[in-house]
Amino acid sequence: MTRSPRVKYITYYEDSESLPGRRTAVWEIDKANHRNIVRSPVLMRELWLEMWHDIHPDKKSEFVTKEKRGPLRDDDCYWDYGKARCAWAEHCEYRYIFGDVHLGQSCRLRNTSADLLLRYV
Predict the structure, then answer these.
(1) Number of domains in the chain
(2) What's the sign of the alpha-carbon dihedral 66, 71, 76, 78?
(3) Rounded distance, CA 21 to CA 111, Å?
């Protein structure tokens, strides 16, 4: 069988021996550039927060994911092409600033009135 150079193939691996009663599944897309994943500041910040929470001895609760707490920085806001607006509409808004190359760069955290006052005072 010859693989087409234009088609991405998915490799699937499942391990049921590591943890009794649990399964670990690994999905990988062939011919995808995986090195750039670690260059994403949003992904690395989320990974760092979750790892810090897991190793912290005084943790009192479960880790709160971004789906529950919402975005923290402008980098967390992105363009939702399906809805034709910025994702996290309650937290993010479309605000173009000169130099933005794509729609996702123009999605920023909404300003509160206190933020607006600090900008002008």
Answers:
(1) 2
(2) positive
(3) 47
